[in-house]
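QA checklist item 7 of 12: single-chain prediction sanity check.
[x] sequence parsed
[x] length recorded as 352
[x] structure emitted
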Amino acid sequence: SKEYLYRIHHGESFEEITSELLSSDHLYVYEKEFHLIPIRHLNQTPKIYPLMEGLNSLYGKDEKKIRIQEQCGDVFKAVDREIKKLKKKIPKLEASLEESKDYDKYREYGDLIFAWMGQLKKDKVIEVQSFEDDKVVRIELDMRYDLKDNANLFYKKYHKLKRGETILKEQIEQARKELAYFEQMVEQLQVAGVDDALEIREELIRNRVLMTKKNNLRRKKQKAPNILNLSMDDCEIIVGKNNLQNQYILSKIANKQDLWFHVKDYHGAYVILKTDEATEEQIRLCAQLAAWFSKGRNSSSVPVDYTQVSQLRKVPGAKVGFITMKRYRTIFIDPDAQKIESLISQKKSDRS
């Protein structure tokens, strides 16, 4: 009704608008609205689909989300649980680390007690002059022990805290790596299909984050991961949408001369381009796919790094999915939802 009023106010007749509405075979999809005719009063640029393709695009995503939640709800809960646990753990470790940085004062207490022992009387609090300046240092003693034993207790605490500082730093670094790992999974789940989410569950089971369900004890013969393979006349493009798929692509499919694409500053898909000589069109398409299967899919000017597979190096000690590049280039791309969805749909139809 708002659109009718808007158009009539701008010179169109009721009959013209109704005729356009009844004869339309396309769907115009906006951020929060969709209709059979352009909704001009919104002043937005729509995505235009053939009617049935548009309806599939609108409702297929919701259906996919429902299926994923039904079959893989435990995966989402497990990842969310681990993230919450790590976000509580890291500040506690950092607070302990900050406290442990005072370990030098306990060595000083021990040194001062031994240095002034002949002039001191045991008391709950003793005051002695610092070695470095004229300041008076107050030291609380444990009245159960004599001066010598108190000094030794301070030395023991000094060594314990000094060792603890190293251990705490290692624990914090490990916790941060684990947090990045699970945050990566969150982004993977946002663009995952049912099969992709089931593979993420398998990864969590391998890492003992999830337990194997009793009815899954007799596992089927392991098959290749659910990678996306787009074969064209002049090239082959392979997309991995989670850690298992990404690892499989690099270890089983990619050759050293192939081009590898990955969205910059986000976790996302590995995209491999197999071709004799990469064209600008192929590079832009691969960058589109890398951006689309990432958190940056709804952004503009998304940076995507690309390089030859030979330039990739796994980060030592890191979990699956963390690698570095020796040399690379960066391309900025605007993900085109219609183009990618249409391409993937077409390729799936060709295979079926």
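[x] summary fact logged: The mean pLDDT is 86.
[ ] second reviewer sign-off
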